[in-house]
Amino acid sequence: MSLFNHAWKHIRRSPYQAFAAIATMTLMFIITGLFTVISFGSMILLNYFEQKPQIIVFFNDTKKEEDIKKLQDKLLNMDKVSTVKFVSKDEALAIYKEQFKKDPMLLEMVSADILPASIEVSAKKIEYLPELATTLKNEPDIIETVFPEDVVNLLMSWIGTIRKIGLGVVVFLAIVSLFTVFTVVSMKIALKKEEVEIIQLVGGSKGYVRGPFILEGIIYGIFGAIIGWGVNVIIILSSTPILSSVFTGIPLFPVTTIFYGALLGGMLILGTILGSLASFLALNRYLK
Amino acid sequence: MRIIFNKVSKNFGKNAPALDETSFEINEGEFVFLVGSSGAGKTTVLRLIIQDLIPTSGKIEIEKFVISKKNHVDTAKLRRKIGMVFQDFKILYNRTTFENVAIALEILGKKSDEISKKVHEVLHLVGLSDKANFFPIQLSAGELQRASIARAIVGGPKILLADEPTGNLDPTTSWEIMKILREINDLGTTVIMATHNADIVNSLNKRVITIKKGKVVKDEKTGKYQ
Description:
A: 4 strands; B: alpha/beta; 10 strands
């Protein structure tokens, strides 16, 4: 009988313990998957804010185009500035019309004259934003400087908190899974003590005796990983229509196949490590 | 495979020598009875041969394997060359007769076709061909011991150790078991049997090593039980 058949027989003959071990692993992988997805999503969101023009400077009508051009050149010569885009009054009107095309009432009341010209300044790093904003605020003929500092700071703070909480929860659940599989495998060893003794007496090697128990732990880990991954995929796919409308323009959805593959791969590796480690610990504890 | 015990001692605690500087040699193909009262050290000799125990002093040589306090050999490899029959059978009750015997070949990594062929051969040899798919609970004590012998010999060991194999059996069944052990010995396997059964020892006219308080007190080529 092959190693796998032995391990599978162990599982089949005690389905309730196997269910407990797989269920705990599955729960751990569902939570791990969700935190991974949220963490990656937040990173994309942050990256999006980092990439997009972060400071918008609106000018008075008195500001001449050549002065704006000079300011544009001055900004481009700064190490901390990535791009500078000029938006004329006509372009501002076009943007406005596009945004409110479903609301003719709002379109009727607006012409290019009342909209200010602006520049959109993008920093190379998000940390440079406050300094650039201060510099631009001191420029003459400026109506307003729009600087999404609060949004970015809030986002960064969220990501930090999500990662810390996520890591804490995942580590806790991983320890719970480890001890559940450890307990299940320990029970199997205790139940099979006589069998193990006989196999050793007739010449069963360490690998032959221990192999099925190690593989059993790995099977629990792999099953937990696959089911946990499946639940995550279902959650992502079912929430995609709602979330894509919330995060319009941000490249979050649809989630790529590569991401699903990497998530499954990571979970399978983690499941294999956790399952084998739990079995290894149980064997060292109860099978001297 | 020749077995050499060279001044082998085994102590369990300070004042409990189970074996005391015991020396003897057993040649390939011999049939040897180990006799002596309970606690004399017979089972200790057998357990030392399969490295279930490690000598306190002295060394045991079994072909290329040299067992001593300082030199442990690969237990699994050693045991694959030695079959052992136990008084309490040591049969797995959740497996059929066939599966119990097959286990000795599975650990050697044999293919299922070969396992099936060899297991049926030895089951035929021990007279259990018709009980291959029976579970141990469906077998008599004699049949369980035959299954145990089948498991011990299926891998083709050079040495067969039997620790009081007739201890739990009635006289008729005991003689059936002895007949099987003699047949196995006739095929060239060294058989070492620890026993209390004087009738069997006296009838077979084989070599008898008598152990008393951990020492070999008599070693006769065709000895009797005393």
